[in-house]
């Protein structure tokens, strides 16, 4: 008997464009012999399924069901590929928790916390061998805060919105004259902003997931960008960034990174697949945590897909493991 899965996509932010691309890949890759899949679009005030004729079928929010003719479709589980809000920040997770419907991503609390870069760093910073850049979390754009930054931190700095995942509103500040504009750009995206000292190092992104009851650390991808940092353009414009999978790390680094990211996954009580970004500092080789993404992209070229293929696993099998883990099947 096939399980009925809702593939949830769309969203309330600019990241919905990436979510739709990810969903298209999941939709065509997922094992149709095991799963009946319905793609559910979630937009503000507009949750719907498109039937074969392209007609919008509204979702009944009382029980997250759809009616196709005389048939009522309910779901055994949700494959969540909705980046940003409400899919990545815990809102959707809380809704599904209330309905008792399982989903492939982190729970409500973990999702909410990890969308906040500052709070996440506060939780993981005491993990052995893990370092975090010195930073200040701001809740308003004031002259006092600008002065505090100059007193407490050393240039160059990264200024980034504290919530959000696609590097929109992020700036690198090399001189104090650039600070005001950078803060303005970040506060235009978010009411909280993280200002942190720049760490010079090799940048990596690594997938970690739970399947068959075990945590698996995928091979890291090394990010070599022609841009100064991995911003929105570097992430999504072809040719701007070189992605090397597996990344160039020696055996000791691979082992150490594996230990650290497994601890991060456990400490944050993650579920499903996450992607953790980090630096290995140039002078010391130390691991510096950047951020965690709890609904990583699943486009053809996404880092997680590259990493899954690098261990000889088909992406279809990867999705099956995520769904089986969600449903409690072994």
TrEMBL record:
Q: Which reaction does it catalyse?
A: 2 D-alanine + ATP = D-alanyl-D-alanine + ADP + phosphate + H(+)
Say which family it is in: Belongs to the D-alanine--D-alanine ligase family.
The residues covered by the ATP-grasp domain are 124-324
User: What are the alphabetically sorted keywords of the record?
Assistant: ATP-binding, Cell shape, Cell wall biogenesis/degradation, Cytoplasm, Ligase, Nucleotide-binding, Peptidoglycan synthesis
Task: Sum up the protein's function in the record's words.
Answer: Cell wall formation.
- Cofactor(s) this protein requires: Mn(2+); Mg(2+)
The family database entries (InterPro entries) matched by this protein are listed as: ATP-grasp (IPR011761), ATP_grasp_subdomain_1 (IPR013815), D-Ala_lig_Van_CS (IPR000291), D_ala_D_ala (IPR005905), Dala_Dala_lig_C (IPR011095), Dala_Dala_lig_N (IPR011127), PreATP-grasp_dom_sf (IPR016185)
- GO terms of molecular function: D-alanine-D-alanine ligase activity
What PROSITE patterns does UniProt report for this protein, alphabetically?
Answer: ATP_GRASP, DALA_DALA_LIGASE_1, DALA_DALA_LIGASE_2
Its subcellular locations are: Cytoplasm
Name of the protein in question: D-alanine--D-alanine ligase
Chief site of localization: cytoplasm
List its EC numbers: 6.3.2.4
Look up the record and name the pathway of this protein. Answer: Cell wall biogenesis; peptidoglycan biosynthesis
From what organism does this protein derive? Algoriphagus oliviformis
Checking Pfam families in the record gives: Dala_Dala_lig_C, Dala_Dala_lig_N
């Amino acid at each position: 008997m096939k399980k009925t899965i809702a593939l949830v996509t769309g969203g309330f932010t600019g990241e919905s464009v990436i979510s739709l691309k990810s969903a298209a890949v999941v939709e065509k890759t997922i094992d149709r012999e095991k799963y009946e899949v319905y793609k559910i679009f979630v937009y503000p005030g507009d949750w719907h399924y498109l039937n074969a004729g392209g007609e919008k079928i509204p979702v009944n929010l009382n029980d997250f069901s759809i009616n196709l003719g005389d048939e009522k479709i309910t779901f055994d589980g949700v494959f969540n590929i909705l980046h940003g809000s409400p899919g990545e920040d815990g809102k959707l997770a809380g809704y599904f928790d209330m309905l008792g419907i399982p989903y492939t991503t982190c729970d409500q609390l973990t999702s909410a916390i990890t969308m906040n870069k500052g709070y996440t760093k506060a939780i993981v910073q005491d993990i052995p061998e893990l370092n975090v850049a010195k930073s200040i979390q701001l809740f308003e754009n004031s002259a006092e805060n600008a002065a505090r930054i100059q007193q407490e931190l050393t240039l160059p700095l990264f200024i980034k919105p504290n919530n959000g995942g696609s590097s929109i509103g992020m700036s690198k500040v090399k001189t104090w004259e650039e600070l005001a504009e950078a803060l303005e750009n970040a506060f235009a995206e978010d009411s909280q902003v993280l200002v942190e000292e720049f760490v010079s190092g090799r940048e990596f992104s690594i997938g970690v997931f739970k399947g068959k009851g075990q945590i698996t650390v995928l091979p890291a991808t090394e990010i070599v960008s022609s841009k100064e940092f991995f911003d929105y353009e570097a992430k999504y414009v072809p040719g701007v960034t070189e992605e090397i999978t597996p990344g160039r790390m020696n055996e000791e680094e691979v082992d150490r990174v594996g230990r650290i990211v497994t601890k991060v996954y456990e400490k944050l009580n993650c579920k499903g697949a996450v992607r953790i970004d980090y630096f290995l500092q140039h002078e010391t080789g130390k691991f510096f945590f950047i951020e965690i993404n709890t609904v990583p992209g699943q486009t053809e070229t996404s880092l997680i897909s590259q990493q899954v293929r690098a261990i000889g696993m088909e992406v279809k099998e990867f999705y099956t493991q995520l769904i089986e883990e969600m449903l409690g099947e072994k």
